[in-house]
Amino acid sequence: MPELGRAALIVCLGAALYAVAAGAYAAWTGRRRLQESAQNAILAAFLGAAVASVVLLTALLRKDFSFTYVWQHTSRELPTAYTFSSFWGGQEGSLLLWLLILTGFSSVAVLLGRRSARSLLPWTVPILGGVTVFFAFMLVVVSTPFATQVAPGDGQGLNPSLQNPYMLVHPPMLYLGFVGLTIPFAFAMGALAARRSDELWIVVTRRWTLVAWTFLGFGQLLGAHWAYVEVGWGGYFAWDPVENAALMPWLAATAFLHSVMIQEKRGMLKIWNVLLVVGAFALALFGTFLTRSGILSSIHSFTESSIGPWFLGFIAVVVAGSTALIVSRLPLLRAKTRLESPVSREATFLYNNLLLVAFCLTILWGVAYPILTDALRGEPVTVGPPYYNFFLKAFGLPLLVLMGIGPLIAWRRASVRGLGRVFAWPLAIAVATGLVLVVLGAGSSIPGLVGYTFCAFVLASIGLEFARGTRARRAISGDSWASAFAQLVGRNRRRYGGYVVHAAIVLLAIGVIGSSAYDTTKEQRLRAGESMAIGDYTLTYRGATTERAANATELRALVDVERGGESLGTMQPGKNSYPAEQQVSNEAAIRSDRLNGEDLFLIAEQIGPRSVFLKVLVKPLVNLIWIAGFVFLAGSLIALWPDAREQRRLAVRYGGREAIARA
Amino acid sequence: MLAIFLVYTALAGGTPQVKPSQLKGHTREVTLVGKVTGPVRGDARGSGLRFQLRDVKGSASGVLVTYKGSVPEMFRTGRDVSLRGRLRGATFVGIPGTLVTKCPSKYTPAKKS
Question: What is the pTM for the complete model shown?
Answer without folding.
Answer: 0.91
